[in-house]
Write a structure and sequence with these properties.
By secondary structure, this protein is mainly α. The chain has helices at residues 2-10, 16-22, 33-54, 58-75, 90-112, 116-139, 147-168, 171-188, 191-196, 203-229, 232-254. The two termini are 34 Å apart. 30% of the residues are buried. It binds heme C (2 copies).
Length: 255
Amino acid sequence: MTFRSFRSFKAFPVMMFPVILIAIPLVVSADLRPLSRAMLANLQATNAIGESLAVEDFTGVANAARELTNRAREIQTWDVSKLGFRPSDKAEFDAYLKLQEDIAEKIGRAASDENGTLVVAGLGDLLNKSCLSCHKAFRDRQGMLKSSTLFMTSFVSAWREINRGLLLNDYSVAARGARSMASVGQIMSWDPIIRSTFNISDTAARNKFRGHAANLVGAADKIEEGATRGESDIIEKGLAQMWNAGCLACHAEFR
Ligand code: HEC
Ligand code: HEC
Protein backbone atom coordinates (compact mmCIF):
# COMPACT_ATOMS: atom_id res chain seq x y z
CA MET A 1 0.00 0.00 0.00
CA THR A 2 1.55 3.26 -1.04
CA PHE A 3 -0.01 5.30 1.75
CA ARG A 4 1.69 3.13 4.32
CA SER A 5 5.18 3.90 3.14
CA PHE A 6 4.18 7.51 2.60
CA ARG A 7 3.25 7.73 6.23
CA SER A 8 6.79 7.34 7.44
CA PHE A 9 7.70 10.63 5.79
CA LYS A 10 4.66 12.44 7.10
CA ALA A 11 5.37 11.04 10.55
CA PHE A 12 8.76 12.67 10.77
CA PRO A 13 7.77 15.76 12.82
CA VAL A 14 6.09 13.66 15.49
CA MET A 15 9.26 11.60 15.77
CA MET A 16 10.49 14.52 17.87
CA PHE A 17 7.92 13.51 20.47
CA PRO A 18 9.82 10.73 22.31
CA VAL A 19 12.92 12.89 22.56
CA ILE A 20 10.94 15.46 24.48
CA LEU A 21 8.92 12.96 26.45
CA ILE A 22 11.67 10.65 27.61
CA ALA A 23 13.50 13.69 28.92
CA ILE A 24 10.65 14.45 31.30
CA PRO A 25 10.70 12.19 34.34
CA LEU A 26 7.28 11.40 35.63
CA VAL A 27 7.68 12.10 39.31
CA VAL A 28 4.10 13.21 39.81
CA SER A 29 2.43 11.32 42.59
CA ALA A 30 -0.40 13.80 42.78
CA ASP A 31 -3.50 13.60 40.65
CA LEU A 32 -3.34 16.23 37.92
CA ARG A 33 -6.29 14.78 36.03
CA PRO A 34 -8.94 17.19 37.31
CA LEU A 35 -6.66 20.05 36.31
CA SER A 36 -5.97 18.49 32.88
CA ARG A 37 -9.69 18.19 32.31
CA ALA A 38 -10.33 21.79 33.41
CA MET A 39 -7.54 22.96 31.09
CA LEU A 40 -8.96 21.17 28.06
CA ALA A 41 -12.26 22.91 28.84
CA ASN A 42 -10.37 26.22 29.16
CA LEU A 43 -8.90 25.67 25.72
CA GLN A 44 -12.29 24.83 24.27
CA ALA A 45 -13.86 27.98 25.73
CA THR A 46 -10.98 30.14 24.49
CA ASN A 47 -11.39 28.70 20.99
CA ALA A 48 -15.14 29.27 21.23
CA ILE A 49 -14.55 32.97 21.95
CA GLY A 50 -12.46 33.35 18.80
CA GLU A 51 -14.79 31.28 16.63
CA SER A 52 -17.91 33.10 17.84
CA LEU A 53 -16.27 36.48 17.36
CA ALA A 54 -15.38 35.56 13.78
CA VAL A 55 -19.08 35.19 12.95
CA GLU A 56 -20.14 38.10 15.21
CA ASP A 57 -22.00 35.78 17.54
CA PHE A 58 -21.66 37.91 20.69
CA THR A 59 -23.94 35.63 22.70
CA GLY A 60 -21.53 32.79 21.97
CA VAL A 61 -18.61 34.97 23.10
CA ALA A 62 -20.43 35.92 26.32
CA ASN A 63 -21.32 32.30 27.12
CA ALA A 64 -17.76 31.06 26.64
CA ALA A 65 -16.41 33.98 28.70
CA ARG A 66 -18.82 33.18 31.54
CA GLU A 67 -17.61 29.61 31.49
CA LEU A 68 -14.01 30.76 31.88
CA THR A 69 -14.99 33.02 34.78
CA ASN A 70 -16.89 30.28 36.56
CA ARG A 71 -14.17 27.70 36.07
CA ALA A 72 -11.50 30.07 37.40
CA ARG A 73 -13.63 30.66 40.52
CA GLU A 74 -14.13 26.94 40.98
CA ILE A 75 -10.43 26.07 40.69
CA GLN A 76 -9.61 28.70 43.33
CA THR A 77 -11.52 26.54 45.83
CA TRP A 78 -9.33 23.49 45.09
CA ASP A 79 -6.67 22.16 47.42
CA VAL A 80 -3.44 22.78 45.47
CA SER A 81 -1.53 20.17 47.45
CA LYS A 82 -3.74 17.47 45.89
CA LEU A 83 -2.46 18.67 42.53
CA GLY A 84 1.09 18.24 43.72
CA PHE A 85 1.84 21.92 44.36
CA ARG A 86 3.19 23.28 47.62
CA PRO A 87 0.65 25.01 49.87
CA SER A 88 2.86 28.11 49.64
CA ASP A 89 2.23 28.14 45.87
CA LYS A 90 -1.47 28.74 46.38
CA ALA A 91 -1.34 32.54 46.47
CA GLU A 92 0.52 32.78 43.15
CA PHE A 93 -1.59 30.05 41.54
CA ASP A 94 -4.80 31.79 42.61
CA ALA A 95 -3.55 35.17 41.39
CA TYR A 96 -3.43 33.83 37.81
CA LEU A 97 -6.87 32.32 38.24
CA LYS A 98 -8.21 35.64 39.55
CA LEU A 99 -6.85 37.23 36.35
CA GLN A 100 -8.65 34.58 34.29
CA GLU A 101 -11.83 35.34 36.24
CA ASP A 102 -11.56 39.14 35.88
CA ILE A 103 -10.38 39.29 32.26
CA ALA A 104 -13.05 36.81 31.15
CA GLU A 105 -15.62 38.99 32.92
CA LYS A 106 -14.33 41.98 30.95
CA ILE A 107 -14.63 39.98 27.72
CA GLY A 108 -18.21 39.15 28.68
CA ARG A 109 -19.05 42.83 29.19
CA ALA A 110 -17.43 43.75 25.85
CA ALA A 111 -19.55 41.03 24.21
CA SER A 112 -22.74 42.44 25.77
CA ASP A 113 -21.81 45.82 24.26
CA GLU A 114 -21.08 44.04 20.95
CA ASN A 115 -17.64 45.63 21.02
CA GLY A 116 -15.43 43.31 18.96
CA THR A 117 -12.29 45.41 19.41
CA LEU A 118 -12.52 45.11 23.19
CA VAL A 119 -13.17 41.37 22.93
CA VAL A 120 -9.97 40.97 20.89
CA ALA A 121 -8.00 43.06 23.39
CA GLY A 122 -9.41 40.97 26.23
CA LEU A 123 -8.51 37.72 24.50
CA GLY A 124 -4.91 38.90 24.13
CA ASP A 125 -4.82 39.85 27.82
CA LEU A 126 -6.34 36.54 28.83
CA LEU A 127 -3.74 34.50 26.98
CA ASN A 128 -0.74 36.58 28.03
CA LYS A 129 -1.53 37.60 31.58
CA SER A 130 -3.37 34.51 32.72
CA CYS A 131 -2.94 31.32 30.61
CA LEU A 132 0.64 31.74 29.41
CA SER A 133 1.92 33.38 32.60
CA CYS A 134 0.56 30.60 34.77
CA HIS A 135 1.93 27.96 32.41
CA LYS A 136 5.34 29.59 32.54
CA ALA A 137 5.25 29.58 36.32
CA PHE A 138 3.66 26.18 36.96
CA ARG A 139 3.49 23.88 33.99
CA ASP A 140 7.20 23.52 33.51
CA ARG A 141 8.09 23.20 37.12
CA GLN A 142 9.83 19.88 37.51
CA GLY A 143 7.41 17.02 37.47
CA MET A 144 4.41 19.22 36.89
CA LEU A 145 4.21 18.70 33.16
CA LYS A 146 2.10 15.70 32.39
CA SER A 147 3.57 14.52 29.13
CA SER A 148 0.76 11.98 28.75
CA THR A 149 -1.47 15.01 28.17
CA LEU A 150 0.56 15.83 25.06
CA PHE A 151 -0.40 12.50 23.55
CA MET A 152 -4.04 12.96 24.39
CA THR A 153 -4.26 16.53 23.12
CA SER A 154 -2.72 15.37 19.85
CA PHE A 155 -5.32 12.58 19.61
CA VAL A 156 -8.08 15.10 20.20
CA SER A 157 -6.73 17.43 17.51
CA ALA A 158 -6.26 14.56 15.04
CA TRP A 159 -9.86 13.53 15.65
CA ARG A 160 -10.99 17.14 15.06
CA GLU A 161 -9.03 17.16 11.82
CA ILE A 162 -10.74 13.95 10.68
CA ASN A 163 -14.16 15.45 11.43
CA ARG A 164 -13.29 18.73 9.76
CA GLY A 165 -12.22 16.82 6.65
CA LEU A 166 -15.47 14.85 6.62
CA LEU A 167 -17.59 17.97 7.08
CA LEU A 168 -15.68 19.86 4.40
CA ASN A 169 -15.98 16.81 2.19
CA ASP A 170 -12.20 16.97 1.81
CA TYR A 171 -10.94 13.43 2.26
CA SER A 172 -7.29 14.43 2.09
CA VAL A 173 -7.74 16.45 5.30
CA ALA A 174 -9.39 13.44 6.99
CA ALA A 175 -6.60 11.16 5.74
CA ARG A 176 -3.98 13.52 7.16
CA GLY A 177 -5.71 13.54 10.57
CA ALA A 178 -5.89 9.73 10.59
CA ARG A 179 -2.23 9.44 9.61
CA SER A 180 -1.09 11.67 12.42
CA MET A 181 -3.27 9.75 14.90
CA ALA A 182 -1.67 6.49 13.75
CA SER A 183 1.84 7.92 14.05
CA VAL A 184 1.30 9.22 17.57
CA GLY A 185 -0.39 5.93 18.47
CA GLN A 186 2.68 4.03 17.29
CA ILE A 187 4.98 6.18 19.37
CA MET A 188 2.70 5.62 22.35
CA SER A 189 3.24 1.86 21.89
CA TRP A 190 6.98 2.02 22.49
CA ASP A 191 8.01 0.36 25.70
CA PRO A 192 10.14 3.26 27.06
CA ILE A 193 7.23 5.63 26.44
CA ILE A 194 4.75 3.40 28.25
CA ARG A 195 7.16 3.10 31.16
CA SER A 196 8.21 6.72 31.50
CA THR A 197 5.24 8.68 30.24
CA PHE A 198 2.39 6.52 31.45
CA ASN A 199 4.27 5.17 34.45
CA ILE A 200 3.24 1.52 33.95
CA SER A 201 5.92 -0.76 35.34
CA ASP A 202 4.10 -4.09 35.24
CA THR A 203 4.94 -6.03 32.05
CA ALA A 204 1.53 -7.64 31.61
CA ALA A 205 -0.17 -4.27 32.04
CA ARG A 206 2.17 -2.70 29.49
CA ASN A 207 1.23 -5.40 27.00
CA LYS A 208 -2.45 -4.68 27.54
CA PHE A 209 -1.83 -0.98 27.14
CA ARG A 210 0.04 -1.70 23.89
CA GLY A 211 -2.94 -3.76 22.71
CA HIS A 212 -5.30 -0.79 23.12
CA ALA A 213 -2.80 1.45 21.35
CA ALA A 214 -2.56 -1.08 18.49
CA ASN A 215 -6.36 -1.07 18.20
CA LEU A 216 -6.26 2.71 17.94
CA VAL A 217 -3.58 2.55 15.25
CA GLY A 218 -5.57 -0.12 13.38
CA ALA A 219 -8.69 2.05 13.50
CA ALA A 220 -6.74 5.10 12.31
CA ASP A 221 -5.34 3.02 9.42
CA LYS A 222 -8.88 2.02 8.49
CA ILE A 223 -9.99 5.67 8.57
CA GLU A 224 -7.06 6.62 6.36
CA GLU A 225 -7.86 3.78 3.96
CA GLY A 226 -11.50 4.90 3.76
CA ALA A 227 -10.45 8.50 3.21
CA THR A 228 -7.92 7.54 0.54
CA ARG A 229 -10.57 5.48 -1.29
CA GLY A 230 -13.26 8.08 -0.69
CA GLU A 231 -15.52 5.57 1.05
CA SER A 232 -17.34 7.12 3.97
CA ASP A 233 -18.77 3.85 5.34
CA ILE A 234 -15.23 2.57 5.93
CA ILE A 235 -14.44 5.84 7.71
CA GLU A 236 -17.58 5.46 9.86
CA LYS A 237 -16.51 1.96 10.90
CA GLY A 238 -12.99 3.15 11.58
CA LEU A 239 -14.28 5.95 13.82
CA ALA A 240 -16.49 3.59 15.83
CA GLN A 241 -13.52 1.23 16.24
CA MET A 242 -11.33 4.17 17.26
CA TRP A 243 -13.68 5.16 20.09
CA ASN A 244 -14.67 1.68 21.28
CA ALA A 245 -11.51 -0.40 20.93
CA GLY A 246 -9.07 2.53 21.27
CA CYS A 247 -9.95 5.55 23.42
CA LEU A 248 -12.74 4.14 25.58
CA ALA A 249 -11.26 0.68 26.10
CA CYS A 250 -7.92 2.06 27.19
CA HIS A 251 -9.48 4.74 29.40
CA ALA A 252 -11.67 2.16 31.12
CA GLU A 253 -8.56 0.28 32.16
CA PHE A 254 -5.80 2.85 32.52
CA ARG A 255 -7.13 6.31 33.08
C1 HEC B 1 -3.53 28.89 37.58
C2 HEC B 1 -2.67 28.41 36.58
C3 HEC B 1 -3.20 28.20 35.17
C4 HEC B 1 -4.00 29.03 34.43
C5 HEC B 1 -4.60 30.37 34.82
C6 HEC B 1 -4.19 28.36 33.15
N1 HEC B 1 -3.53 27.17 33.13
FE1 HEC B 1 -3.57 25.82 31.61
N2 HEC B 1 -2.35 24.54 32.72
C7 HEC B 1 -1.88 24.80 33.98
C8 HEC B 1 -1.09 23.67 34.44
C9 HEC B 1 -0.39 23.54 35.79
C10 HEC B 1 -1.11 22.72 33.39
C11 HEC B 1 -0.43 21.34 33.36
C12 HEC B 1 -1.44 20.31 33.74
C13 HEC B 1 -1.11 19.00 33.10
O1 HEC B 1 -0.04 18.85 32.53
O2 HEC B 1 -1.96 18.12 33.15
C14 HEC B 1 -1.91 23.31 32.31
C15 HEC B 1 -2.19 22.69 31.11
C16 HEC B 1 -2.96 23.23 30.10
C17 HEC B 1 -3.31 22.54 28.88
C18 HEC B 1 -2.98 21.09 28.61
C19 HEC B 1 -2.17 20.85 27.42
C20 HEC B 1 -0.76 20.54 27.71
O3 HEC B 1 0.00 20.58 26.74
O4 HEC B 1 -0.39 20.26 28.86
C21 HEC B 1 -4.05 23.41 28.11
C22 HEC B 1 -4.64 23.14 26.73
C23 HEC B 1 -4.21 24.62 28.87
N3 HEC B 1 -3.54 24.48 30.08
C24 HEC B 1 -4.93 25.73 28.44
C25 HEC B 1 -5.13 26.87 29.21
C26 HEC B 1 -5.86 28.06 28.75
C27 HEC B 1 -6.48 28.22 27.37
C28 HEC B 1 -5.85 28.94 29.78
C29 HEC B 1 -6.44 30.31 29.84
C30 HEC B 1 -7.80 30.53 29.48
C31 HEC B 1 -5.12 28.31 30.88
N4 HEC B 1 -4.70 27.07 30.49
C32 HEC B 1 -4.94 28.91 32.11
C33 HEC B 1 -2.11 25.94 34.73
C34 HEC B 1 -2.90 27.02 34.34
C1 HEC C 1 -3.53 3.06 25.12
C2 HEC C 1 -4.25 3.90 26.02
C3 HEC C 1 -5.00 5.11 25.57
C4 HEC C 1 -5.61 5.33 24.37
C5 HEC C 1 -5.69 4.41 23.17
C6 HEC C 1 -6.22 6.65 24.46
N1 HEC C 1 -5.99 7.20 25.68
FE1 HEC C 1 -6.64 9.05 26.31
N2 HEC C 1 -5.76 8.70 28.13
C7 HEC C 1 -5.04 7.58 28.47
C8 HEC C 1 -4.55 7.73 29.84
C9 HEC C 1 -3.70 6.73 30.60
C10 HEC C 1 -5.03 8.99 30.29
C11 HEC C 1 -4.79 9.64 31.65
C12 HEC C 1 -3.55 10.42 31.48
C13 HEC C 1 -2.98 10.84 32.74
O1 HEC C 1 -3.71 11.46 33.52
O2 HEC C 1 -1.78 10.59 32.92
C14 HEC C 1 -5.77 9.58 29.17
C15 HEC C 1 -6.37 10.85 29.22
C16 HEC C 1 -7.05 11.43 28.16
C17 HEC C 1 -7.61 12.77 28.18
C18 HEC C 1 -7.42 13.77 29.31
C19 HEC C 1 -8.63 14.06 30.10
C20 HEC C 1 -8.81 13.15 31.28
O3 HEC C 1 -9.97 13.01 31.70
O4 HEC C 1 -7.85 12.58 31.83
C21 HEC C 1 -8.22 12.97 26.97
C22 HEC C 1 -8.96 14.21 26.51
C23 HEC C 1 -8.04 11.77 26.19
N3 HEC C 1 -7.32 10.86 26.94
C24 HEC C 1 -8.50 11.60 24.91
C25 HEC C 1 -8.30 10.46 24.15
C26 HEC C 1 -8.86 10.23 22.84
C27 HEC C 1 -9.77 11.21 22.09
C28 HEC C 1 -8.42 9.01 22.43
C29 HEC C 1 -8.73 8.28 21.16
C30 HEC C 1 -8.64 8.97 19.91
C31 HEC C 1 -7.58 8.46 23.49
N4 HEC C 1 -7.54 9.36 24.51
C32 HEC C 1 -6.94 7.22 23.43
C33 HEC C 1 -4.80 6.47 27.70
C34 HEC C 1 -5.25 6.30 26.39
